[in-house]
């Protein structure tokens, strides 16, 4: 066998968090454990019927949709996105030049790093963060400067703590609110205004990852970055169909913003892929133009699950708080488990209870001491999950 080593930059990357979790899951299944999977943010509820019908109809009756798609997205898709951005956020975009289809927003986020970053460049990335924010930077062979998200600062980065020297060498800043993994939302518009001011001052591309904009609870409604003055000069925004319409496996999203900032991503992608399949784009059009009450219903399912888990975990000494959005809860380990560390606790939880969660450390150094729980299993299973975590905690307390 010849010995060909993969690239150095690939070696630098840790195993993908969910690859590790999937291995644990497989072990648990092999041992015939009754697994409750709250690990990945992988919605278990079905895609709404009208979207499925549109996909089936398109594939069956419009045979030309099997051909290579238009890489930047078909005009109908881009027009639909532009109209939805006006309806939803009051944001006007030119469908021809300011909307780009993506094969899921993860693809676009990883590639925006490669489109913009050179090895000497920095990207400002929150810690903890959705792993593609820092792994995308590593894939581009560039450097990450971590902006800690800590409870004391309501899980918001403090831009004043970024050293001037680093800010000057930074080309991208990633922000993601409603946030994965901390489930924080931003209620004070000043935060966005400060972010825009900071990025303008240092000539930084602000990437707003708005994958959870539609999954919010109560009166809270998440904005688009483009609702704030000056954002279009420095920002791009990424959106996803995955969570809003339970279409995670369909792989469809979009990036939007000024032609000048968006074009490098379009150019980069044109050398790599042919864009999202045409029948998927048409299904996306059906999703955005169709009834929107399915989104409210979905959000209220997550809100109920969130309350049940948060209150249940609080009762057994875990540090959990109600949230205003996303499909996650970010839970501080109880005192009896804090020293053990999040990875070991997550591993033992799978092995000993069959409950799969994500260790906070997988999202960054400042995620240590936390677990992320995804609210993606049948409502009835949360009661069982709580009973098992409660028993696990009692043992941990006894062995202190
Ligand atoms: C913050 C954030 N951005 C982007 C994505 C990727 O979404 P998509 O399925 O569109 O690639 C996720 C998925 O979990 C996410 O949590």
Keywords summarizing the entry:
single chain; 400 residues; alpha/beta; Aspartate Aminotransferase, domain 1; Aspartate Aminotransferase, domain 2; 7-stranded mixed beta sheet; 3-stranded antiparallel beta sheet; 15 helices; globular; binds pyridoxal-5'-phosphate
Which radius of gyration do the C-alpha atoms yield? 21 Å
Judging from the principal axes of the Cα atoms, what is the shape? globular
Task: Kindly report the spatial arrangement of strands forming the biggest sheet.
Answer: 2-8-7-6-5-3-4
The termini sit apart by: 51 Å
List the topology elements.
Layout: H1 8-12, H2 17-30, E1 36-37, H3 49-61, H4 75-89, E2 99-102, H5 105-116, E3 122-127, H6 132-139, E4 143-148, H7 164-169, E5 170-175, H8 189-202, E6 205-209, H9 231-234, E7 235-240, E8 253-257, H10 259-270, H11 278-289, H12 293-315, E9 328-332, H13 335-338, H14 342-353, E10 355-356, E11 358-359, E12 370-374, H15 381-398
Parallel strand pairs: 1-10, 3-4, 3-5, 5-6, 6-7
Antiparallel strand pairs: 2-8, 7-8, 9-12, 11-12
């Amino acid at each position: 066998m010849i010995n060909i080593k993969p690239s150095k930059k690939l070696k630098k990357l840790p195993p993908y968090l969910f690859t590790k979790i999937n291995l644990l899951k497989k072990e648990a299944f092999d041992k015939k454990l009754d697994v409750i999977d709250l690990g990945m943010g992988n919605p278990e509820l079905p895609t709404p019927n009208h979207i499925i019908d549109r996909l089936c109809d398109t594939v069956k009756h419009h045979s030309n949709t099997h051909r290579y798609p238009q890489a930047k997205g078909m005009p109908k898709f881009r027009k639909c996105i532009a109209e939805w951005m006006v309806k939803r956020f009051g944001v006007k975009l030119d469908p021809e030049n300011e909307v780009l289809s993506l094969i899921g927003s993860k693809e676009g986020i990883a590639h925006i790093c490669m489109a913009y970053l050179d090895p000497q460049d920095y990207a400002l990335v929150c810690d903890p963060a959705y792993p593609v924010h820092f792994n995308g930077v590593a894939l581009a062979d560039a450097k990450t400067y971590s902006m800690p998200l800590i409870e004391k600062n309501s899980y918001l980065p403090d831009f004043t703590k970024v050293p001037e020297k680093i800010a000057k060498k930074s080309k991208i800043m990633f922000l993601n609110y409603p946030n994965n993994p901390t489930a924080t939302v931003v209620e004070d518009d000043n935060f966005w205004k400060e972010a825009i001011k900071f990025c303008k001052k240092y000539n930084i591309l602000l990437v707003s990852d708005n994958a959870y904009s539609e999954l919010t609870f109560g009166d809270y409604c998440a904005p688009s970055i483009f609702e704030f003055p000056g954002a279009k000069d420095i920002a791009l925004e990424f959106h996803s169909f995955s969570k809003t319409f339970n279409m995670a496996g369909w792989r469809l999203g979009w990036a939007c913003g000024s032609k000048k900032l968006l074009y490098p991503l379009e150019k980069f992608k044109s050398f790599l892929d042919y864009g999202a399949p045409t029948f998927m784009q048409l299904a996306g059009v059906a999703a955005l133009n169709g009834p929107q009450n399915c989104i409210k219903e979905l959000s209220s399912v997550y809100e109920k699950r969130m309350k049940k888990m948060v209150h249940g975990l609080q009762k057994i000494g875990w540090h959990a708080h109600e949230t205003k959005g996303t499909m996650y809860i970010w839970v501080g380990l109880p005192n009896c488990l804090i020293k053990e560390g999040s990875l070991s606790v997550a591993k033992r939880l799978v092995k000993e209870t069959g409950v799969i969660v994500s260790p906070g450390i997988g999202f960054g150094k400042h995620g240590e001491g936390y677990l992320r729980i995804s609210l993606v299993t049948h409502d009835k299973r949360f009661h069982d999950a709580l009973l098992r975590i409660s028993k696990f905690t009692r043992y941990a307390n006894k062995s202190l």
